[in-house]
Design goal:
The complex is a heterodimer of chains A (263) and B (309). With 263 residues, chain A is an alpha/beta fold. Chain A contains 11 helices and 12 strands. Chain A has a single domain, classed as P-loop containing nucleotide triphosphate hydrolases (Rossmann fold, 3-Layer(aba) Sandwich), CATH 3.40.50.300. Chain A has a 6-stranded mixed beta sheet with strand order 6-7-8-3-9-10, sandwiched between helices. Chain A has a 4-stranded antiparallel beta sheet with strand order 2-1-4-5, with helices on one face. Chain B has 309 residues and is mainly α. Classes of the chains: A alpha/beta (263), B mainly alpha (309).
């Protein structure tokens, strides 16, 4: 089943340069996709477009076989249904955590959906236990560490049980243990049928979690759509989009060059 | 990568034009105030999670009790009642494991003293007529001056003095009760408990978000000022200081606008449609009104007893 489809879309913020240049692609249910590209290549904008937070300037975006337009998302019932099915985890956790208590933060989505009080409590408590956050339930988000904030942001999205989970640079600023936790969580969610779309320039993460890669060039165009492992082995491609770099250095008397990864 | 010549040549002979004086005081002070605010916020949370007497009471009951007590001190016409409330505050602070002496200085040190200062003119017969309590200048002659006939000299009136003392005690006690509530209840719980007094959910949410992002922007400001301090040599001329403050405000404003846009998108992504729906955990129940009612009724009894005497 196709969950998302972009048909010749282009986008631009007011008075800025065009992005994506008639991009077309489809995303099937249960896929795990990584969106690769250097800083400023348009990854975050593309993810926001998938989530219905921004809309294509030209072309058509369909989700769950329905064309998504700004007018359609003005309909509250449709918007709620759409956003329940597509969860978005922001790069900046501070933007996502806006209430003064972790429990309320996680409960925000289910409450907006109009779930009963008992259902909200059940879901929130279950998700907090699942992510081992039950001890933080009464804490204020601004007193949490970076890793804890990210976990709460993930919890606040998972509590709605979305079919598609979109993550913008999920491992940025996380320590190795929390990065590993994130990888395992995403693999587990994908194993249970969730479609995962992750933007990153962390190639190790891309390698671990995804079967398909979408590579954006620095000119904001989709230049690769295919098997992620092949993409990660294609050094020319990665160098062309500035995801790896080559540099020379000297060991003893021999000089040789390495590939240098970002992230 | 080629370094420019000046970067290579000036290694050990950099002439820095050091302006005499310490590092700019305004930078230091700004940083001090910002760090102090963060520290106080953390300290408040620490005390709110201590195992004291008031910390065990539900936030909504505490809020109603405090509001009841503030009402009592606002309508009370007897100083012994106000002193009794003060004693109660001291006992509650002690029982809640709060630093009593420090909090007393904080409660009574500035605002009540200022209100006493502002109410000083009321004590004099020139502003409010009344029975003489203490003469500052006695005169049997009537001297017209500034449009006023100065007949009996200048003295402090009994009524004016009592009014000023009442004002001082009421302001100090209200502040102490507020501090007592804040120090024994996590901030998030205080916001939630506002629902029992029917404060609209949207208003509570705006306050919660304001508080939350105030702390985020405060941390950003500390980083910004730290960066400034590291790049500031000597004392800056006032013109530069003003320019720095202006640019800091502008930068913070731009960041807060960008952040607010992202926060709104995060809300929409989690099914927000413009109407806030919140958990009804803290809606008012009849026992919640009990502490306030008890305090209010008790005060009525005290007042009636006072009037009978």
């Amino acid at each position: 089943m196709t969950v998302m489809e972009l048909d010749k879309i282009s986008f631009r913020y007011e008075h800025e340069e065009w992005l994506f240049n008639n991009m077309s692609l489809t995303i099937e249910a249960g896929e795990s996709i990584c969106l690769l590209g250097a800083n400023g290549s348009g990854k975050s904008t593309l993810l926001k477009l998938f989530c219905g937070l921004v809309f294509p300037s030209t072309g058509i975006y369909r989700a769950f076989e329905q064309e998504i337009t700004e007018d359609l998302l003005e309909d509250n019932r449709f918007a709620q249904g759409f956003h329940r099915r597509i969860g978005f985890i922001f790069q900046n956790s501070d933007a996502q955590l806006f209430t003064s208590r972790v429990w309320d933060e996680v409960a925000f989505g289910p409450l907006q959906m109009g779930f009963s009080r008992a259902e909200v409590k059940r879901r929130v408590d279950d998700v907090l236990v699942m992510l081992n956050l039950q001890n933080l339930a009464g804490r204020s988000p601004h007193r949490l560490s970076g890793g804890e904030k990210k976990k709460v942001a993930v919890a606040s999205t998972l509590v709605l049980n979305p079919e598609v989970i979109i993550l913008d640079e999920p491992t940025n600023g996380l320590d190795p243990k929390t990065q590993r936790w994130m990888v395992e969580l995403l693999m587990e969610l994908n194993k249970h049928g969730r479609t995962i779309i992750t933007s990153t320039h962390n190639l190790d993460l891309a390698h671990a979690i995804s079967q398909r890669a979408l590579v954006l060039s620095e000119e904001h165009c989709l230049i690769y759509d295919g098997d992620s492992h092949k993409a990660l082995e294609d050094k020319q491609l990665l160098m062309a989009v500035n995801l790896i770099d080559e540099y020379c250095h000297v060991h003893g008397e021999s000089q040789h060059s390495h590939l240098y990864k970002h992230g | 990568m080629l370094l420019p010549d000046w970067m290579i040549e000036e290694q050990n002979q950099i002439a820095v034009a050091v302006v005499p004086g310490n590092k700019s005081i305004y930078l230091k002070k700004s940083l001090q105030y910002m760090r102090k605010t963060i520290c106080e916020d953390r300290q408040t949370e620490y005390y709110a999670r201590c195992n004291g007497a008031l910390q065990k009471i539900s936030p909504s009951n505490k809020l109603l009790g405090m509001l009841g007590l503030i009402l009592v001190i606002s309508i009370s016409r007897q100083i012994p009642i106000l002193l009794g409330v003060w004693l109660l505050v001291l006992i509650l602070m002690r029982a809640s494991r709060l630093p009593v002496w420090r909090l007393q200085i904080r409660s009574w040190g500035v605002i009540p003293l200022l209100s006493l200062l502002f109410s000083l003119p009321v004590m004099f017969n020139v502003v409010m007529d009344g029975a003489p309590l203490f003469y500052l200048r006695y005169s049997s002659l009537t001297i017209p001056w500034l449009g006023i006939n100065w007949t009996e000299g200048i003295f402090i009136t009994r009524q004016g003095f009592t009014a000023a003392i009442f004002l001082f005690l009421r302001v100090g006690l209200s502040l102490s009760l507020g501090i007592l509530l804040v120090m024994t209840t996590p901030v998030a719980d205080i916001f939630q408990s506002l629902r029992v007094i029917r404060v609209p959910d949207l208003f509570i949410m705006i306050m919660e978000m304001t508080y939350r992002y105030m702390m985020v922007l405060l941390s950003v400001s500390i980083e910004m000022f730290d960066a400034r301090v590291l790049r500031t040599v000597g004392k800056l001329p006032p013109k530069w200081q003003r320019a720095q403050v202006g640019s800091s405000i502008a930068s913070l404003f731009a960041r807060s606008v960008a952040l607010s846009e992202e926060v709104y998108q995060a809300m929409i992504a989690r099914c927000y449609t413009g109407e806030v729906l919140v958990s009804s955990e803290e809606k008012a129940h009849w026992p919640d009104g009990l502490p306030g009612t008890i305090v209010f009724e008790q005060n009525n009894e005290w007042c009636k007893a006072g009037e009978r005497k």
